[in-house]
Amino acid sequence: MKYTSLPVYQQKERILDNLSSNQVVVVQSPTGSGKTTQLPVILHEAGYSDRGIIAVTQPRRIAALSVSEFIAKQLKTGYPGLVGYKMRFEDKTDNTTRIKIMTDGILLQEMKLDPWLSRYSVVMVDEAHERSLNIDFVLGLLKRVLQARTDFKVIISSATMNTEVFSAYFDGCPIVTIDTITYPVTVV
């Protein structure tokens, strides 16, 4: 599979331009377009991992594990290393990890110890449309981090969500909608 042919990757300049001039960007695109797996890679390639860890939250453990495995395979790295994952009772990260996939509950736990997420440059909240209690807490706490840290970035992504509500909550942040045909999702 050629990852650069995925719709999200083809829109990387548009996404990065919006992120460079805004602290928060909402990305909406259909399932299978590469949001979950390619946005962290795009951020890494753009240098965001030089400034801190790129975090990607997932609502479920199995999603966190499969996303991290996919990205690690794409970047040809093992655990722990450039890509890692963390969930309850399992931590496959170390001090070299730059892309960290975790459950939203783990991010909440980390925010207890480090409320300003000082080790992170970007947090991507994936599947935000699921609107669990954890995701709602994460979004509220991220808003506080954004006010305290002007260097901090947030990406809210989902295939199906009311983008205007999230944009309004984050002070009218831009919405990048990637309209495309729905691509089949295959297990690799």
UniProtKB/TrEMBL annotation:
One Pfam family of this protein, by short name? DEAD
Kindly give the CDD domains that the UniProt entry links to this protein.
DEXHc_RHA-like (cd17917)
Q: Which InterPro entries match?
A: DEAD/DEAH_box_helicase_dom, DNA/RNA_helicase_DEAH_CS, Helicase_ATP-bd, P-loop_NTPase
Domain Helicase ATP-binding, by residue range, is: 16-179
**Methyltransferase among keywords:** no
Q: Which SUPFAM superfamilies does this UniProt record tie to the protein?
A: P-loop containing nucleoside triphosphate hydrolases
Q: Which UniProt keywords apply?
A: ATP-binding, Helicase, Hydrolase, Nucleotide-binding
Q: Which PROSITE patterns match?
A: DEAH_ATP_HELICASE, HELICASE_ATP_BIND_1
Span of the signal peptide: none
Record-level Gene Ontology MF annotations = ATP binding; helicase activity; hydrolase activity; RNA binding
Highest taxon in the source lineage: Bacteria
The protein's matches in SMART domains, at most eight in alphabetical order, are given as: DEXDc
- Protein family according to the UniProt entry: Belongs to the DEAD box helicase family. DEAH subfamily.
**What is the protein name for this chain?**
DEAD/DEAH box helicase
Organism of derivation: Candidatus Treponema excrementipullorum
